[in-house]
Amino acid sequence: MKALHNQLHQQSIEQPDVFWADAAAALDWDKPFDKVLDASQAPMYRWFSGGEINTCYNAVDRHVEAGRGEQVAIQYVSPITDTAYGITYAELQAQVSRLAGYMASQGVSKGDRVIIYMPMIPETAYAMLACARLGAIHSVVFGGFAANELATRINDAKPKMILSASCGIEPSGVVAYKPLLDDALGQATHHVEQCLILNRHQLHADLVDGRDVDWQAAMVDAPYVGCQPVAATDPLYVLYTSGTTGQPKGVVRDNGGHAVALAWSMKNIYDINGGDVFWAASDVGWVVGHSFIVYGPLLVGATTLLFEGKPVGTPDPGIFWRTIAQYQVKSFFTAPTAIRAIKRDDPDGDFIKDVDLSCLQTVFLAGERCDPDTLHWAEQKLNKPIIDHWWQTETGWPVAANMMGTAPVPVKAGSPALAVPGYDVQVVDEMGERVAANQTGNVVIKLPLPPGTLATLWQNEARYKESYLSMYPGFYLTGDAGYMDEEGYLYIMSRIDDIINVAGHRLSTGRFEEVLCQHEAVAEAAVIGVDDKLKGQVPLGLVVLKKGCTLSDEQLHKELTALVREQIGPVAAFRLVSAVPKLPKTRSGKILRGTMRKIADNQTFNMPATIEDPYTLELVRNVLTRMGYADAHV
Ligand code: COA
Ligand code: AMP
């Protein structure tokens, strides 16, 4: 099948117009596009220009019209609240069109931004689809972020309305969202006209007069509205992701290219068609949730499983397998960290043994590098193909994968397999020259990127060009380093920038450093990602204290971890921090984070020729050893 994969890939690169016009035929268009690939503004490429489409219509209404009204569209499973129910396509259409009707009655229309700060409940998907129905641009903010992060996104997106809920529910208990929202609105400089608040029965949120509206009450008289056609090139959503600075990047996704790419990938990569059941065990706050909990499965008329729970502890490490069997999931998508958590709690796979997993064809993993041990454990215990695939918030759908729907290829542990059609992936050196097979370099993608990838950064085309297009003109910089073997299998090994990946969550070390420096005792801070058996990486902070600081180590640790939790959120999982006398730097003042990371993880490293004072590395090594990293003898 490698020949077929290569043939499809070659066609997509040599004849993108033919390839993607064919894929676009799977969607219903309100107005046909004039051009498939519009290169008139290169390097700002656009797909399907001139065309008009509505994403919500394609994800919901057309399936009802085609006779799928009684099929379950969203299967909600919440072991945390012991709730499960299905929402049919007809019910979904009714819910979404009324919510959109209410929003329209409040003045939300095409092009307006709407922030969604909600937990993993069906109403979050209704909210996204209601925006799509109106042509409004949603921006979902992950619930594990703190008020300050939400405020930053409110200021950037300038939403007309915010949709939120009283609480999320985590294994640790009920997490109140409303106080975080109120705090964020207090911090934000942008004025939000209305917040629509869903009160969950686990926690009641008080509403602010004149600003907050009760969701259920608003629905009572809400009118149903139809789908507003928008230009294929109009934005569907903005999703913020970590950049190398504290200011997150607002990835802009269009309507047309997005729908085409997702419908194509559901069939060709995930082998999911109308009527199949698909489950991506992620959160709607991340790109996986956008693409493969909400839009992708619904665009092809499948049933999507929306899961409010964790791989372990809700209540045990068998919950994934029982859920797959109960709802007849055909393809399942999770992060390697989730498999590692299950492996930790159920090393022999006892919770798998008695479950009939005959419905399950494939398990897909992404979000971070999948180490071969995790892959092999899952293969042995599940006896199913375990498919690593690689992509990013920016691309919105897989860049390298094994196309299980059309052209499966043999699995190589440690590799997300081959570049997917549409992506001309290359590995280059610092000068932009392609490196030989098996040589590590920067992973880049030759422009144009395929449909469905980021169109730009919200209100910041200059940052888009600078971040992604400036290092190698004509190429998109993925920010990942890795290599390609003789057969074209890609191996993604690390980031080339200051981004770390904690339990599949992408976080900026620069943002951590900004927060640490807010503490009055801290003169300077460096944060690195160190290896972690469960989460892949965790952040570790080293701070230089101001002269005269009298805080004990214990107090400092308590205050700094609390500060990061308050400013970035619990998702930061920031627990490791210590003071060092001095940070190692180059003579030009650049902190040697990469070298410190290697020391922490016991990797070999070359003493940087430009280091200002080699002794500083010894000081750091001593501190890292005391923290349980950097074995003293290495
Ligand atoms: N709302 C509020 N808080 C949230 C949250 C949300 N939506 N999601 C996470 N948090 C909180 C958690 O409660 C936890 O808080 P705590 O410090 O008070 O315990 C913190 O953020 C970290 O959560 P998490 O990253 O889930 O770590 P964990 O240690 O609780 O669980 C795993 C570890 C491996 C089980 C978990 O990280 C996991 O399931 N990972 C899968 C990752 C994934 O799906 N990634 C998406 C990319 S595909
Ligand atoms: P995010 O934008 O949060 O989805 O994070 C994207 C980043 O996660 C990528 O740039 C990679 O660094 C990493 N990543 C995601 N999937 C994989 C994978 N399968 N293998 C290696 N790294 C991955």
TrEMBL record:
Superkingdom per UniProt: Bacteria
Q: Which InterPro entries match?
A: ACAS_N, AMP-bd_C, AMP-bd_C_sf, AMP-binding_CS, AMP-dep_synth/lig_dom, ANL_N_sf
CDD domains recorded: PrpE (cd05967)
Residues of the Acetyl-coenzyme A synthetase N-terminal domain: 7-59
The AMP-binding enzyme C-terminal domain, residue ranges: 513-590
**Per the database record, which ranges form the AMP-dependent synthetase/ligase domain?**
68-446
Q: Which PROSITE patterns match?
A: AMP_BINDING (PS00455)
**Family (UniProt):** Belongs to the ATP-dependent AMP-binding enzyme family.
Task: From the Swiss-Prot or TrEMBL record, give the protein name.
Answer: Propionyl-CoA synthetase PrpE
Q: Report the source organism.
A: Shewanella algidipiscicola
